[in-house]
Amino acid sequence: MLAKDQPYLRASPRLCVSAVKRTVLFALTFSFLFCQSTLGDGPTNWPQFRGPTGQGYAVGSELPVRWSERENVVWKTPLEGAGHSSPVIWEDQVWITTASDNGKKLGAYGLDRETGEIVLRVIVFEPSEVLEIHQDNTYASPTPAIEAGRLYVHYGRYGTACLDTQSGEVLWRDTDHVIEHQGGPGSSPVLFEDLLIFNCDGADHQYVVALDTKTGEERWRTNRSAPYRENPITKRAFASCLLVEHEGQSQLISPGADQAHAYDPRTGEELWHVTYTGFSTVPAPVSANGVAYLCTGFFDTELLAVSLDGRGNVTGSHVRWSYDKQAPETPSPLVIDGRVFIVSDKGVGTALDVSTGERVWLKRLGGNYSASPLTDGKHIYFCSETGQTKVVSLDDKPEVIATNKLDGRIKASPAVSGNTLFIRTDKALYRIEASLDGEE
Fold it and tell me: CA-based Rg of the chain, rounded to a whole angstrom?
């Protein structure tokens, strides 16, 4: 994909064909068969990191429980380049970002959802100078965001861009938000109305910014209010934002170093913040019933439960509980059915009561974990770095129902469309479904 002599983009005629040439009969027939065979009641589109809600929910999907390289794999598409970004899905397209190992070419693949064929290959940026990254990171770790007709890709300091999803044309580029990651990019963007919002938490500058989705122009920027420590390395963070609604108001929950913030996503005005001791924060927050659950970062790692109805500094007033045993430094939490589920980087899974923070269960899953878990409402899917996915029952006496192994390593969080699971390894992208004969 990223070789110098390749064309700027390559488009499949099937995706570029005019909508006028698609007959109504074909569209209706395909839609009916597609929905009946694969979609079920789960999310059809997976538009951002961790799905429609940003919290790893695929409730209503009938996801496969068992798979391997030879079982329940609909297709497997080898991938060139490196990237820890998750797939995003819109209708019949699956998109991922990728980068050359040296970071000199930053691109995106558009795949046909049904066949796995790579139908669009786009080189978005070719930076002349790149900085070293952490050995566990890539230059294409942030997950893109997608909506009808538009894909938004983000490579941290190297730029953000909007692509036309049918042609691959780059509609705009933004290279104004350059920070010193000192480890490489990590934060994924989120879409809110006509804004694309992302964190910029470098060793030199720390702020949150919103770009106009039509033009790429900056609409607002809010500097972090945290009282940072002197050492620049302790000012960095790599977490993504979460959008929630609380009492009729939208909140953008945004973890940074030593402090997490909530902003009005329309204006960037800070609503509240909570302080803690931790930096290089990676996990994205989750929320349920008016409470946000936040991981604090490296070294003094905790999970905090913070009520959303505060204003100003809520550290002493709205922190309901904290938990400091086996809290994750990389995978994001999952909250469902009155429980917060976490898996530590070293493979210890824990369920906590959402109201009290008391531990309900602890289970050693084995392996190391970077990917964030997801749930279909019946199971939790934990993907380890060794390529294994542990499928665990969603109850207070958890059982590992299946351990499924794929070739390669998994650091990207999985994606879902209907009853279909998409998993990216460092070698390939997989589409996985339960077999049509009803076997899982």
Answer: 21
Q: How many CB atoms lie within 10 A of CB 403?
A: 15
Determine the Cα–Cα distance for residues 418 and 415; give it in Å rounded to an integer.
10
Q: What's the burial of 426, exposed, middle or buried (CB within 10 Å: 0-12/13-18/19+)?
A: middle
Enter the tokens of residue 397. Answer: 């006496």
Residue with tokens 């989750």: 286
Asked if residue 79 lies in contact with residue 101, where contact means CB atoms within 8 angstroms, the answer is no
Nearest to 299 by CA among 319, 323, 327, 259: 327
Q: Tokens in use for 319?
A: 């922190």
Q: Which residues contact 333 (CB under 8 A, 6 or more apart)?
A: 283, 285, 286, 293, 295, 303, 340, 341, 342
**Residue (of 345, 379, 395, 340) closest to 365 by Cα position:** 345
The dihedral over CA atoms of 156, 160, 166, 167, expressed in degrees to the nearest 10, equals -110
pLDDT tens per residue, range 241-291: 999 999 999 999 999 999 999 999 999 999 999 999 999 999 999 999 999
- What is the reported pTM? 0.90
Is pLDDT above 70 for 12? Answer: no
Q: Please write the tens of the pLDDT for every residue from 106-143.
A: 999 999 999 999 999 999 999 999 999 999 999 999 99
CA distances from 207 to 187, 199, 226, 271 (A): 12, 6, 10, 15
